[in-house]
Design a protein that fits this description.
This protein is mostly beta strands. Helices cover 15% and strands 43% of the residues. Strand 3 and strand 4 form a beta hairpin. Keywords: Signal.
Length: 143
């Protein structure tokens, strides 16, 4: 009797571990709808009173005058992918890969404000804000 109970207990533990690990899946999803957290108009100071602008709506992204949307063709056709907390726009298309984006709180003008962080390249993070500040808050991790 004890042998059967031990076998059943072992079987339950094995099935429990299997069930717990099957629910954890890391995969990228793809769509043409931008996440709500990224939407809005974002600015990054580029110097001499000029700004780089990103405008994200439900189904489009405008970056410095170039519009990307699902209705466009070729390099300007919008594709949104997610990996972890980062969102990629047009990933896989080398000519129109816009980089990876996420929002986070950054210290700006003495207080933490929501900002859009763009990663495009090795170790460089570009920080965009909802308001025009005459200071660039971008940073590098690798020099």
């Amino acid at each position: 009797m004890k042998k059967i109970q031990l076998i059943l207990a072992t079987l339950l533990v094995v099935l429990g571990i299997e069930g717990a690990t099957n629910n954890i899946q890391a995969h990228a999803s793809s769509s043409t709808t931008t996440p709500k957290s990224l939407r809005g108009t974002w600015y990054k100071y580029t110097g001499d009173g000029k700004f780089s602008t990103i405008r994200i709506t439900t189904h489009s992204l405008t970056y410095n005058g170039s519009v990307y949307s699902p209705s466009k063709s070729g390099a300007h056709k919008l594709k949104v992918s997610k990996w972890g907390s980062w969102y990629s726009f047009n990933k896989g298309s080398s000519s129109s890969n816009l980089g990876q984006f996420k929002t986070e709180k950054r210290l700006i003008k003495g207080s933490y404000k929501k900002s859009l962080v763009r990663y495009h390249g090795i170790g460089t993070y570009y920080v965009f804000t909802h308001h025009k500040y005459n200071q660039d808050y971008s940073f590098k991790i690798l020099d």
